[in-house]
Design brief:
mainly alpha; about 0% strand
């Protein structure tokens, strides 16, 4: 369990309809999830840490990111280079 401190937060009323787009049973859960999603999107925390902070399983957090239209993985130049090598090898083997 995370060591928790309690903070009170005031949000403008116009935030409430926006929070409806975030998973959670309470405003507190929705704000927490929105905050964690932002930390993950800014690369301040890893996927695993974001899931832990959100209180969700890794798979559930990945699903939440997908529902929000956010990629949970990153396709890097290194990945592309590896894929290119495999494709070239396969094409060479084919003929």
């Amino acid at each position: 369990m995370l060591n928790q401190s309690i903070f009170q937060l005031q949000l403008p009323a116009e935030f409430l309809p926006l929070l409806d787009k975030i998973n959670g049973d309470s405003i507190d859960q929705k704000v927490r999830l929105a905050f964690v999603i932002n930390l993950f999107a800014k690369k301040a925390v890893s996927l695993e840490k974001a899931a832990e902070l959100s209180g969700e399983t890794l798979v559930d957090f990945m699903d939440i990111l997908k529902e929000q239209g956010l990629p949970w993985g990153e396709y890097t130049e290194e990945h592309m280079g590896q894929d290119d090598m495999v494709i070239k090898k396969m094409l060479k083997e084919i003929g």
